[in-house]
Amino acid sequence: MGTEQHKTPACIRTDLPLRLNPALVKALANKTLGLPRTEVRLANSSPKWEQAFTEVQRVLLGNKPLGVQAIEHIGSTAVPGLSAKPILDIIIGTVPEAGSDELHRWLLGHGFIYRGEADAIRPDTIYGFEIEANNRLINAHVITYGQTEWAHYLNFRNYLRRTPQDREAYQRLKEQLAATHAHDRISYLEGKTEFITQHRKAQSR
């Protein structure tokens, strides 16, 4: 017998879904969502984004693994009045002992594509949902429920929701970065890091 080691499915990045869950496709229809992976473009805030999240959450909770504790809407599409890249960001909180293979099969079964494991830089495992190849509609962040980064995501969202002055400052920053880095997603994200970090520190005092 050979001794060759094979990667498990959870270690292989994918670009195409196994199949699309029709219920998720319906939940995202006519919700002004979707952005090519290589493009940085902001869209005006829309109440349809929260409607889309509510429907997506309902579909995913319908057959969630036992290890999933919560599914939350995060990022700029979760902040009314804030322009955003038209992609839903959702955070899926799991118990520490949740089986990664089961979570992986669950998300792939809904039509998500696997995009990368948590590492020293990024605390969450990432999945995307696309109806048309390379046109992202959802980024799903899988992370341990209640850990520091889980709280950071929710606290920053809630802070922007209740603080108009800083929400407007964040909007101006995002507009400047989108204009400068229209086809450089990494630079756009890096340009927001200082603002996010400063406000996280302010909330922890």
Query: What is the tally of helical segments?
Result: 6
**Count of beta strands:** 6
- Encode the helix/strand succession as letters: HEHEEHEEEHHH
**Major beta-sheet overview:** 6 strands, mixed
CATH domain fold name of the domain at 10-147? Beta Polymerase, domain 2
What portion of residues belong to β-strands? 15-25%
State mean pLDDT (0 to 100 scale): 89
Q: What is the overall silhouette?
A: globular
* Unreliable segments of 5+ consecutive residues: 1-10
Structural class designation: alpha+beta
Radius of gyration (Å): 17 Å
Short summary:
The protein has 205 residues and is of the alpha+beta class.
Report on this structure.
With 205 residues, this protein is α+β, with helices and mostly antiparallel strands. It is 41% helix and 18% strand. The protein has helices at 22-28, 47-61, 100-110, 148-162, 164-180, 185-204, and strands spanning 35-36, 68-74, 88-94, 113-116, 125-130, 135-144. Strands 1, 2, 3, 4, 5 and 6 form a 6-stranded mixed β-sheet that branches. α1 packs antiparallel against α2, α4 crosses α6 and α5 (164-180) runs antiparallel to α6. The longest helix has 20 residues, at 185-204. It starts with 21 loop residues before the first helix and ends with a helix.
